[in-house]
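Entry for nicotinamide-adenine-dinucleotide complex. Fields follow.
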Amino acid sequence: MTESSNPFSLQGKHILITGASSGIGRQCAVSCDRMGARLLLVGRNQSRLVETLRMLSGSDHDYKTTDLDKIPSTYIEDLATLHGAFDGFVHSAGIEKTLPVKFLKKTDYEEVFNTNAFSAFEIIRQLCSRRTFKDGGSIVLISSITSLIARGGVCAYAASKGAINSAVRVMALELSKRRIRVNSVSPGTILTPMMKDYLASLTDDERKKRVDGFPLGIGTSEDVANGVIYLLSDASRWVTGSNLIIDGGYTAR
Ligand SMILES: NC(=O)c1ccc[n+]([C@@H]2O[C@H](COP(=O)([O-])OP(=O)(O)OC[C@H]3O[C@@H](n4cnc5c(N)ncnc54)[C@H](O)[C@@H]3O)[C@@H](O)[C@H]2O)c1
């Protein structure tokens, strides 16, 4: 199949990826590169962003070191002026705070919401101009199955991901006039640095229970990146406002 006849091709598409310095965001960069996209990688850690850049075969990618909790109101405009308007946006930056509700302070909620949801909403606000985002573009926000099913200790995190799922549906309606599609992806447990740290903090019994919940076992970053590619590509041209669950069957129970 030639690139042009492959509906999953990202050839010629310019895509902004946050959280590209590790885990799922890094894998999204590697997979989008393989599908022909030109990428702008965003993360906090310059050396790890450069590491991601070195994993890519294309030569016209770039990166921007950014703390997403502090982006200026001209952030996207400035990037688009320098690198060109975007066809795609993937928000994979995220943090987790595992604490029982009785210990979660307002500042904990603020921290988690700022990175997981508000920074994405602000970027999308800035992408609403034709100068920064092309008609027919695609936006993919990484949510989580904790937005759909409860687990103790993840209230702030789950709520921030639930905010993403709700916002995606409204944004999809509003931006449909320009055929811009907005979707979320909800992964189950994926072995990334963030998840490895979390699993290491559990007792053996807790870890076994967590892993055994997945009929197809724990997932990989590639499993998520493949779903992201689908949503970024023209293969999903009639899909918007949806939440793609990639969880090895966890929520099918
Ligand atoms: N790993 C899993 O099992 C799993 C499951 C469901 C959902 N998710 C979601 O997938 C996304 C990626 O998770 P991951 O497992 O790859 O985690 P990770 O920790 O490996 O990657 C998160 C990335 O976000 C970046 N980041 C965090 N705060 C930032 C900020 N203020 N500014 C800029 N960058 C910031 C980090 O630098 C890092 O590159 C997250 O949104 C996470 O909630 C992960």
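NOTE: DSSP finds eight helices and seven strands in the chain.
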